[in-house]
Each structure stands twice: as C-alpha cells, then as structure tokens.
Amino acid sequence: MSEMTTDSMGATDATDAIDAMDAGPAGMVSDRDPTDAPVMIHLDGVEKIYTPGADPAVEKLTLDIHKGEILVLVGPSGCGKSTTLRLINRMIEPTSGRIIFDGEDVTDIDPNELRRRIGYVIQRIGLFPHQTIAENVGTVPRLLGWDAKRTRTRTDELLDLVGLDPSEYRDRYPKELSGGQAQRVGVARALAADPPVMLMDEPFGAVDPITRDRLQNEFLRLQAEVQKTIVFVTHDIDEAVKMGDRIAILRERSIVAQLDTPARILAYPVDDFVDDFIGSGSTLKGLHFERVSGLDIPEYPVVRRDTSREDARRLLEASDNRWLLLLDERGRPARWLNDTHLADTSRPLHEIGPVVRALVERNATLHDALEAMITSSAGQAVIVERDGTYAGVVQIELLTEVIGRMRQEARKHYERLEAAQESGASSSGSGA
Ligand SMILES: Nc1ncnc2c1ncn2[C@@H]1O[C@H](COP(=O)(O)OP(=O)(O)O)[C@@H](O)[C@H]1O
Ligand SMILES: [Mg+2]
Predict the structure, then answer these.
(1) Please, what is the angle between helix 209-226 and helix 13-20, to 10°?
(2) Taken in order 378, 381, 384, 386, is the CA torsion positive or negative?
(3) 3, 167, 235, 243: which has the fewest Cβ within 10 Å?
(4) In what order do the strands lie in the sheet with 381-384?
(5) Distance in Å, CA 198 to ligand 1 centroid
(6) Which of 48, 49, 74, 83 for mutating ligand 1's site (highest number of atoms within 8 Å of CB)?
(7) Which run of H or of E encompasses 47?
C-alpha cells in the first residue's frame, strides 16, 4: 500500500502485474556458479591516475566479469567505483593496463559501437529534461541511425518491459515522473539497443527505500528475462548482497578486498576491512541463501485428534522437546501442546494450546524460517507442504548448525584457494 503512495503514478497494469509477483525473495537463492560462464569483460592491471603525481583512483585492477552475471562493486565513497565503471565504457581512458571486452581490446572498438554494446545507468539518471520519455529512451537508436518507426516500436516495447504503459508515458516529460519512474526510464534507455552489457552506477541510490526495494525486485526479474552481463555499483552492502551474483568489496583505490558470492562473503569475511564493511547482522543475512528444503529435519513428536492424553503425555516425556504438535483431521498443523495443556482436562486437546501460526513452506529461506520462529509461541517453525499438510519442525538449534556449516564450508573454500595458489606459485617458481 505504501508502495502505491510513494510511486502512485507507476501503478499501471504492468507494474501491478510485476508487484503481484513480488511475494518471494527474488534472486536471493542461487546454486549456479557465475564463474562457469565465459568471461565477458576482462580488466588487466587497469590503472587510472587523474592528476599526475597524485594517488591512483584505480590501482592495477585485474578482474573478470562473466557472461550473464551481476557483478556488484561495493565499497566506501571515493574508493574508485565510478571511475572503474567509466573506464569500462571509455568515458575515461586508463593510464595503464588493458580492458578486453568480449575478446576485443576496448581501445580498438569504435566509441559509438561500444555505446551500443554497453548500456549505462546512473543515479538521478540525467534524463534530458526537454525531451519526451520516448525521445529519451530512443537516444541510442537515434545515434545509431535507426528509422523513426523502428525506434518507436523499440521504445514502446522497452517502456512496457520496465512497467510503464507506453500510451500513458511516451509523450510525458521527465519532470512529470516520480523518482522511481524516472529510474525505470533510465533502465529502458540503457536497454534500448539491446546491449549485452549494462553498467549501473548507484542506479537506485536517489529514491526512497520502498521504491528502491521495488525497483531492485523489478530489475532482478527483468534480468532473469534479459540475462545481461551487469556491473552494478553501490556503496550499500545490503543492496550488494541482494543484487549480486558475485560481489567485489573494494577498498581505497579500487583494490579488491574480497570477491565472491554474497553467501560466502557473509559466511567468511577474509579480513577486518570486509568484516567492518559488511557490518553486524551478516550471519542473519546469510540465512537468505539457504532454503528449508536443504535442511536435515529430525523427527518431531506429533499427535492427532484421536491420540489419547495418556499416549500424548508418554510421547512428550520420551521426547527432548517441550512441545507436542497437534495435527488436525487433514494432517495440517493445528496447535502446540505442552505438559500444562495436557494436564488441562477441562476441554479436548484440539481446543487447548496455542494455535500454530509460524508456518513455512519447503522453498522458504532460512531467514523466513527464523522470522516465523521468532513469532511462534513455541519458538519453532512448522514446515508444511504446498497443500498445508505437516512436513516437519525447524528449531533454532538446526539454524545454528547450518550457520556453523556455512562458515566451515566457506573457510575450507578459502583454504583450498590458498593451497592452490601456493602450489601454483611454487610450481611456476620451479619451472622458471
Ligand atoms: N574527474 C576527476 N578528476 C580528478 N579526480 C577525480 C575525478 N573523478 C574522481 N576523482 C577522484 O578519484 C577517486 C575515486 O572517485 P570515484 O571513482 O568517483 O569514487 P566512488 O564512485 O567510489 O565514490 C576520488 O578520490 C575522487 O575524488
Ligand atoms: Mg561513484
């Protein structure tokens, strides 16, 4: 509801349809390794010194960006993120080093051609104020000499894609748009020539948090459809964690402090800089990356309506748990029962004990499960099948175990990397 008020002009049928799909944590869980895809952009010792004699804004940066991934560059203000992006599309030239774009050195590519192949979105996107939305979106097609009809068709298609009804918006001017709508137009403009690569510099930085969240979700959904290679810059670690297939955490002079999947960075920050930068709550954030379906759920004592009090009491005594779960006649979780409830003979069991409210489906994330648990009278969440029938109980101890396992796996991963580097270094050393 509040989304509507902050961005009411965007409430066209198309955006409503997108919002209706907003329920799940889009793009949060992925088992795909982004580095399996071929390299799209290769930065090779790229350096940028603005003022001779001054510190470099970007110091010898070597980085691969893989086809179809969202690589987020995240770091404190002034660390060189924007400079890095602008080197990639040649808005500025490197002082030294090379940038290889899809196998070609960018300095060998005609700047117009490069612009067609790399879409660019910035904060407060800088729409041209005296041009209509359609003219703004058609900027690159016009530069490329497309005819009016083709440009118009493409413009309408793009407005649709970003959730703005073309008939309503194409002839408006930028000042008639909300911040969120203007940002959508910016994304549409960047996508106009269907570039394989998008560079996005704090694209959602200038809108309110609710609109930002919504634009992020829309963008992730759009990306699932268009599968671009994206370099996304932000100073906000939460945005990085949400948007990135991989994250490069940058320190001053664009030096990579850690480059990895969000899950692994949260589970295993490699040094104090990264640890400080991701801040508190990294463990909780990490729970977004694991699903309930991946848990090894232990047995839990359940009773049914026809279970006698005697049997129920024996079951509870034999169990390590403080609560029994009572299922209804269709096998759905109904109530929690503890020994106080079992001792209360004034009413039948299915009328006493707190009603079970903390339900999660198997595809829920562990973060969802934790949230459910916190609100549960029994301090635990009940897993249900799609039809609502009982599937298991998640307890806090299980989450603690998972967190421990995530940390251990990430640590092992880094130990293997280090070992591989050492053996690589020693073998190349002995070969020389
Ligand atoms: N055009 C420029 N001329 C001189 N120095 C610049 C220029 N642009 C950026 N810088 C400097 O380069 C460093 C990195 O800036 P920038 O890439 O904008 O960082 P970020 O985007 O991470 O905030 C900063 O110290 C900034 O002052
Ligand atoms: Mg910047």
Answers:
(1) 90
(2) positive
(3) 167
(4) 359-361, 381-384, 390-394
(5) 21
(6) 83
(7) strand 39-48
The tens digit of pLDDT for each residue in 159-195 reads 998 889 999 999 999 999 998 899 899 999 999 988 9
State mean pLDDT over 110-138.
88
Full strand arrangement of the beta sheet holding 333-337: 302-303, 324-327, 333-337
Whole-angstrom Cα distance, residue 209 to residue 164?
Answer: 20
Written as six digits, the tokens of 23 are 């329920």
Write the CA distances from 233 to 54, 205, 236, 257, 263, integer angstroms. 24, 10, 9, 15, 18
Cβ atoms of 1 and 214 within 8 Å: the answer is no
Q: Give the integer Cα–Cα distance in Å for 301 and 319.
A: 7
Dump strand ranges (E) for 266-374.
302-303, 324-327, 333-337, 359-361
pTM given for the model: 0.83
Q: How far, CA to CA in Å, does 239 sit from each of 33, 157, 233, 281? A: 20, 28, 10, 14
Could you identify the atom of ligand 1 that is nearest to the CA of residue 85?
A: 17
End-to-end CA distance of the chain: 66
Cα–Cα distance between 73 and 399 in angstroms, integer?
A: 30
Using the predicted structure, report yes or no on whether residue 300 has a pLDDT greater than 60.
yes
* Residue of the CA atom closest to atom 25 of ligand 1: 78
* Contact between residue 142 and residue 191 where contact means Cβ atoms under 8 Å apart: no
For range 110-129, the mean pLDDT: 85
Gap between the Cα atoms of 360 and 294, Å rounded: 13
Q: Residue 431 pLDDT > 70, yes or no?
A: no
Q: How is residue 428 written in tokens?
A: 């190349």
